[in-house]
Design goal:
alpha/beta, Isopropylmalate Dehydrogenase, 2 domains, ten-stranded mixed beta sheet, two-stranded antiparallel ribbon, 12 helices, globular, binds 1,4-dihydronicotinamide adenine dinucleotide, binds magnesium ion, magnesium ion binding
Length: 354
């Protein structure tokens, strides 16, 4: 049996860390006798330069024909002043929409060795282990109209959701909670937003289908505060697109570096896309010093969610945890005691551990 993986390196450090994930998958392939086939496609700034579009048709078709997609990151200052349809992040939004990736799963777990690396107090983050389930294809980032009016002096963005869009993400969150500590926190702004009122109603309706899960609701502003004052209280957090975007970056401080955080973006029946939570990090791109961990852990999520290779996924996670707890770290975690290593050295340590 062979798994087809579409690689979308993108820009900046995306083009470095994606090959770390590939190396680790090849180690898994050898050890567990699984066959992975890789095919690379352009997306983001590199695609704009080569094809004059951030998302070429060949990339969409290649992803649809694959069993799963690994994405590095897109963007960079070179394209910052481009018109909006020629911006790298258009490629990212486009591929999420094309594959109908409605659910973004971001696990956030502090490694013992890195507790001190967070600006938060160790006693606050010790034991935190949560999963943010973010709606990814609705809400403000996709709502229409989104435009300037009155000669550019007025603007409108639209936050819209349908019942069906909310139900499927809420179901995904309940099911994720069932596999974890069975606690679900739904985050909204139901005191102000109509969309949040429907969101809250649907979570309440769905409770009876998952009687083993305890549910509470938090307003997003309170959730933002509690995430860094008492993160241990959370198991699964479910929320709409923009709230999830903000809260998941905030949650990254629990782990000490954005370079540690993986993510999975899932469709109802189609291919999943796996990418680190960080961006293309132009400030360190090309230097060989990026932390490949988030990308490698994203590949582990791919094995688990798209290929049902749980043992193999666990092997990657164990290897990462062992190497990190031995003190090996890239420069983003420079306050850590232990040995400073490059992207390829970190990758090789994880490969060797596997
Ligand atoms: P960023 O995540 O690229 O970088 C933020 C800071 O974290 C930088 O100092 C960077 O050096 C550091 N960092 C991030 N990942 C790291 C890693 N793996 N190892 C070591 N250090 C790491 O976010 P920023 O600077 O806001 O955006 C840079 C570009 O990336 C922009 O063009 C932005 O649009 C794009 N971006 C793309 C995303 C994606 O492709 N999913 C997500 C976020 C931003
Ligand atoms: Mg973000």
């Amino acid at each position: 049996m062979s798994f087809k993986i579409a690689l979308l390196p993108g820009d900046g450090i995306g083009t470095e860390v994606i090959y770390s994930a590939k190396d680790v998958l090849q180690a898994i392939s050898k050890k567990y006798n699984k066959k992975f086939e890789f095919e690379a496609y352009d997306i983001g700034g590199v695609a704009i330069d080569k094809h004059h579009t951030p998302l070429p048709d060949a990339t969409i078709e290649g992803c649809k024909a694959a069993d799963a997609v690994l994405l590095g990151a897109v963007g960079g200052p070179k394209w910052d002043n481009n018109p909006s349809d020629l911006r790298p992040e258009r490629g990212l939004l486009g591929i999420r929409k094309a594959l109908d990736l409605y659910a973004n799963l971001r696990p956030v777990k502090g490694f013992q060795k890195l507790l001190h690396a967070s600006p938060l107090k160790e006693e606050i983050i010790n034991g935190s282990d949560l999963l943010i389930v973010r709606e990814l294809t609705g809400g403000l980032y996709f709502g229409r109209p989104s435009e300037r009016r009155d000669n550019g002096n007025a603007v409108v963005d639209t936050l819209s959701y349908t019942r069906q869009e909310i139900e499927r993400i809420v179901d995904m969150a309940f099911q994720s909670a069932q596999l974890r500590k069975k606690r679900l926190t739904s985050v909204d702004k139901a005191n102000v937003l109509e969309s949040s009122k429907l969101w809250r109603e649907i979570v309440e309706e769905k409770k009876s289908e998952y009687p083993d899960v305890t549910v509470d609701h938090l307003l997003v502003d309170a959730a933002a505060m509690k995430l860094i004052t008492n993160p241990v209280q959370f198991d699964v957090i479910v929320t709409e697109n923009m709230f999830g975007d903000i809260l998941s970056d905030e949650a990254s401080v629990l782990t000490g570096s954005l370079g540690m955080l993986p993510s999975a973006s899932l469709a109802e029946n189609g291919v999943g896309l796996y990418e680190p939570a960080h961006g293309s990090a132009p400030d360190i791109a090309g230097k060989g010093i990026a932390n490949p961990t988030a990308m490698i852990l994203s590949a582990a999520m791919m094995l688990r969610y798209s290929f049902q290779l749980n043992e193999e996924a666990q092997a990657i996670e164990n290897a990462v945890e062992a190497v990190v707890n031995e003190g090996y770290h890239t420069q983003d975690l420079k306050s850590t005691t232990g040995e400073l290593v490059s992207t390829t050295e970190m990758t090789q340590l994880i490969v060797d551990k596997i």
